[in-house]
Amino acid sequence: MLLDDIGPEGQQAIGQARVLIVGLGALGCGVADWLARAGVGHLRIADRDIVEHTNLQRQVLYCHADAQDSRPKAIAAARRLTEVNPDIEVDPHVTDVTAATVESLAAGCDLIIDGLDNLDTRYLINDLCVREGLPWIYGGAVGTGGLVMPLLGPHCGGRIRWDTPTGCLRCVFPDPPPPGTLPTCDTAGVLGPAVGAVTSHQAALAMSILVGRTGDALDRTMHAIDPWSGESRRMALPGPRDACPCCSGGTFDWLEGGRGDHATVLCGRGAVQVHPPTPGTIDLALLADRLQSHGQIQHDEHVLRCTLPDDISLTVFADGRALISTDDTAVARTLYDRYIG
Fold first, then answer.
1. Beta bridge partners of 139
2. This prediction's pTM
3. How far is 183 from 181, CA to CA, in rounded Å?
């Protein structure tokens, strides 16, 4: 409240805010921690995964006991956030964020924050926010750097108002790249402080939006941050593109189920087949190089086979489709995001 740009009225606005954080990995943990300490009145948090020991290097809400007991991330995070600030409401959801669940998760929220590890769900969030007129904050971190940007659609449909739209995710990146072309935390690693730099900026943007900053006072740029090299860049967001199929054309491919990955249990196989969100040819040789340290690999130009830890078998085809030796579709989607991307 001592900050001129916030004050008692801004703190009251933060206390009345309802924020959805989608994904409780490194990004979601960091943002949730900052916002709980800032006094955001209602935090709805959603994640489909459990805590593992490898998460502890960068996912700051969890401890050794959470990993040892394989606690769902949403439950472990809610417990910690309530200890941090018992005066706020934390609403955990152990669920996969899909076209079938995202609307109910976002219901009544003022702002959505991206803590995700895959582009597919980000395009789904983008569809919903454009349709409903909600602001959301994109964040990503891999290797030693990350990317942050606020995404404010062409109209305001909720309590939060803004005067200058940034355009939507599809204005910036019209379509996601083919699977297997981008590094992931599990294949390329991630520097813990890089996550901290991204989540601090996401949280600052969230608070700025929640207290009602507009015009030039509200940062509407894309930030590329690399604390390892000390480099950072700011790029102006394009605003709504006339050719954008989403915010200009009103087409919501991911929300309506026309795009996005699909997972199907194969009867009698003990495996789940995951289809990529975007059809296209995958470079199996490049993927083999990325997975070299994660298991035994065999591949040719048509198929790659990899035995992951815990005897999980991963079979990837040149069209991006994968067979994963589990009967749990949520587990299969998680493994696909981790190792294929």
1. 148
2. 0.82
3. 7
Closest CA to 141 of 218, 58, 63, 206: 58
- Please give the angle made by the CA atoms of 51, 57 and 60, to the nearest 5 degrees: 65
Report the chain's terminal Cα–Cα distance, integer Å: 42
> Are residues 210 and 266 located together in one domain of the fold?
no
Residue 248: inside a domain: no
Q: For residue 124, give both structure tokens.
A: 């789904």
Torsion of CA 168, 173, 176, 178, to 10 degrees: 180
Of residues 17, 51, 23, 58, the one with CA closest to residue 206: 17
Average pLDDT for runs of 10 along the chain of length 341: 94 97 96 98 92 90 92 93 97 88 95 91 96 97 95 91 93 85 81 95 97 91 95 93 93 84 66 76 87 85 83 84 85 86 77
CA 127, 21, 206, 106 torsion: positive or negative?
Answer: positive
Residue 185 known to be catalytic: yes
Q: Which amino acid is at 105?
A: L
Q: Which domain holds residue 14?
A: 7-236
Q: Are 108 and 18 in contact (CB under 8 A)?
A: yes
Which of the residues 109, 168, 171, 185 is marked catalytic?
A: 185
Q: Is residue 313 part of a domain?
A: yes
